[in-house]
Design a protein that fits this description.
The complex is a heterodimer.
Chain A (H helix, E strand, L loop, with lengths): L12 H5 L15 E7 L5 E7 L1 H5 L3 E6 L26 E2 L5 E7 L2 H8 L3 E6 L28 H7 L2 E9 L11 E7 L2 E6 L4 H11 L7 E4 L16 H12 L3 E4 L15 E9 L5 E14 L2 E7 L2 E4 L1
Parallel strand pairs in A: 1-11, 9-10
Antiparallel strand pairs in A: 1-5, 2-4, 2-6, 3-5, 7-12, 8-9, 8-11, 12-13, 13-14, 13-15
Chain B lengths: L4 E4 L3 H9 L4 E4 L5 H6 L7 E4 L8 E4 L2 E5 L4 H6 L1 H6 L1 H8 L4 H6 L2 H6 L5 H4 L15 H4 L21 H8 L3 E5 L5 E5 H4 L18 E7 L7 E7 L10 E10 L2 E10 L6 E2 L1 H7 L6 H12 L10 H17 L4
Helix pairs in contact in B: 5-10, 12-13, 13-14
The chains are: A alpha+beta, B alpha+beta.
């Protein structure tokens, strides 16, 4: 109780309000190059053509990475074809709106952004479903093995219970939008990778990059001094750190890539659209029954679009 | 952003002449809208003519009213003594807009000329007749929660985002414009912004090259009973879903005159003429306010996602009038 309700001086307070605290995209390195993401313009389908010739000739452009030329860096995801985890620039398939389809690397941010607008893309569009409530019938449980089995006899208990509550809840999508946009600065030296990233799990990122680039974990240095807000959106490895590391390796210069505010809406996980129906009841006295909600949520992390169904189950407490 | 030449004008005539001789040039004020649009490739320019050195920033008495320089900053205008004391409705509206930083950069002329924030307009991958004539209107059958309920066409359902323009509409402002011929054209605010009709690419009635020099307001009238109500998703730094600028001229409890203008509901600031007519000569009561609001909202044509604006519009008119009346 010594601290609750009292003003506290933060150890990093002065550094943060005076600009001395350095975030992932603020480390000045000599010969720095800049990456800019081009995102897909459809939600589902395939890229039928991708022409970077005009973009490559734009001033300051060093390289443009797409599914056509990016080395197939990423390890096969565990679970094989059943794991629909998204890997950027691996194929012409578009699986979500705002999917990264090209990384332009140039001498300045503005040059990279401009060149990204010159990349010409055509798509074959497929029908996409983005309204959860129209797709409830196709929901399925994502982690059946991990769910505890149902217990008790809810239906009869509910029918007989004198006290019942039944409710339906709709929780819309919420995008986190912390002040600091996601981004990273990376460079290689003597086969060792250093990456300044906004990460909430530096060891996980280190291992991921070690795995991806097939180098020992001791050769990956992940530096996250401050996180300018993430609210969970940097707990998993987002798709951009491997892209930044790849770009730095290929152009042989330090590369910085930062999301624009618009990129933030599809560039990392967010709170998914959720629908829940819940029924609770209790009997006389202390015996109570609880029906854990049957519900449906759009399973969204940046790596894919799946739908999950939480199985309703009954517990007597 | 496509590469452009940057030119700086020292006189208004020089600015107009430069634009006129470069068919894809654009005027640059504070850049708080145009530069964003250029970065996103929604707008482009061969040349940008910087107006910020022009002597068009004065705010002075004129003809019993006030002349407001087009290049004065929004913040300087809202906080100017003449505006605060004689046209407080305008101050109230302008201070509800944007953020302090933007108000410090934005010019009055630019504020009038700012473009819609419709998501389809902003996204070059999506159809938009305003940005790219003939490509269709994405919002009409798409997501239109923030779009128009009055005056839309099948080509465009966008709304004008300016709060300042709504107050200017309520106050019968006149826009003074320098033409390429060297003459001055005076455009009443009601005729400045257009309804989309078949040409949503034209937000207003300015001809290419014309330069807004100043905004004139008539002698002050509505200094006692006024209120600007802005209803939006957040309490700051957000555009209006529905806004109402309301002003009353009272004789005891009787309404001698009234001004009602709405934002967030149409391609231009919406003068609520039906509501005004229904209020003149009536007693300033909530019942009469509600009747007037009903009369105005009768012509509303909601889209799939903005039906809430009809009821919200009614209530916003009533509340703004109640507050202008000092009742609430």
């Amino acid at each position: 109780m010594r601290y609750i309700g009292k003003e506290m001086r933060r150890v990093d307070g002065i550094a943060k309000v005076t600009g001395r605290a350095k975030y992932a995209a603020e480390f000045e390195l000599s010969n720095l190059a800049y990456g800019y993401l081009k995102l897909s313009e459809i939600a589902k389908g395939t890229i039928t053509s991708l022409d970077t010739r005009e973009a490559e000739k734009a001033p300051g452009v060093l390289r443009i990475f797409t599914h056509l030329n990016a080395p197939k860096l990423f390890p096969a995801p565990p679970g094989g074809a059943d794991n629909k985890e998204f890997r950027p620039l691996m194929s012409p398939n578009i699986v979500f709106n705002g999917q990264p389809i090209a990384v332009v690397v140039a001498d300045t941010f503005e040059q990279a952004r401009y060149a990204s607008q010159l990349v010409k893309v055509t798509y074959s569009r497929q029908k996409s479903v983005t309204d959860l409530r129209t797709a409830l019938d196709s929901a399925r449980e994502t982690n059946a093995q991990k769910s505890p089995p149902p217990r008790g006899h809810f239906a009869s208990a509910y029918a007989a219970a004198p006290f019942k509550v039944e409710q339906e809840y709709n929780i819309p999508v919420e995008h986190h939008n912390p002040i600091e946009p996601h981004g990273a600065t990376a460079f290689w030296e003597d086969g060792k990778l250093t990456i300044f990233d906004k990460s909430q799990n530096v060891y996980q990122l280190r291992d991921y990059l070690s795995n991806t680039f097939k180098i020992a974990p001791e050769y990956v240095n992940v530096i996250t001094l401050f996180v300018g807000g993430a609210f969970g959106s940097s707990l998993s490895v987002n798709y951009y750190p491997p892209l930044v590391a790849l770009a730095a390796r290929e152009v042989e210069r330090p590369v910085r890539l930062v999301y624009t505010r618009r990129h933030m809406f599809t560039g990392h996980g967010y709170r998914p659209d959720t629908w829940q129906k819940s029924r609770h009841c209790r009997g006389q006295g202390w015996k109570a029954y609880c029906y854990i909600p049957s519900g449906c949520h759009q399973h969204i992390n940046v790596r894919g679009l799946l739908r999950g169904l939480l199985q309703g189950r009954a517990d007597s407490l | 952003m496509t590469p452009f030449n940057y030119l700086r004008a020292t006189t208004a005539e020089e600015a107009v002449e430069t634009i006129s001789s470069h068919p894809q040039a654009r005027y640059l004020g504070g850049g708080t809208n145009l530069l964003d649009l250029m970065k996103d490739n929604v707008e482009s320019a061969s040349d940008l003519v910087d107006l910020t050195q022009l002597p068009l920033t004065e705010i002075t008495e004129r003809n019993g009213g006030v002349s407001i320089g087009a290049l004065a900053k929004n913040s300087d205008t809202a906080n100017h003594e003449l505006i605060r004391t004689r046209y407080p409705l305008l101050t109230h509206a302008m201070l509800a807009a944007a953020s302090a930083q933007i108000r410090n950069m934005a010019t009055n002329g630019g504020n009038l000329l700012q473009r819609t924030r419709c998501g389809y307009f902003y996204d070059t991958a999506l159809p938009c007749n305003k940005r790219a004539p003939g490509t269709g209107c994405g919002a009409r059958e798409g997501l239109n929660r923030t779009h128009a309920i009055f005056g839309a066409s099948d080509k465009c359902v966008a709304v004008h985002p300016s709060d300042m323009a709504v107050a200017l509409a309520a106050l019968d402002a006149k826009i003074h414009v320098l033409t390429p011929k060297g003459t001055v054209r005076v455009i009443p605010i009601a005729d400045f912004h257009r309804l989309p009709e078949d040409h949503p690419e034209a937000d207003n009635t300015l001809q290419y090259g014309e330069l807004i020099e100043r905004i004139e307001l008539p002698p002050p009238r509505f200094t006692e009973n006024y209120y600007c109500l802005k209803v939006r998703d957040r309490t700051s730094y957000a555009f209006a879903l529905v806004s109402v600028a309301a002003a009353l001229e009272l004789d005891g409890k009787m309404i001698k005159d009234v001004r009602l203008a709405m934002g967030g509901v149409a391609h231009k600031p919406w003068r609520a003429h039906q509501a005004e007519k229904a209020l003149i000569g009536k007693e300033a009561t909530e019942h009469n306010f509600a009747t007037a609001a009903e009369a105005e909202m009768k012509a509303a044509r909601p889209l799939a996602h903005n039906g809430y604006k009809v009821e919200l519009g009614k209530r916003a008119i009533v509340r703004a009038l109640l507050r202008a009346n000092g009742t609430v």
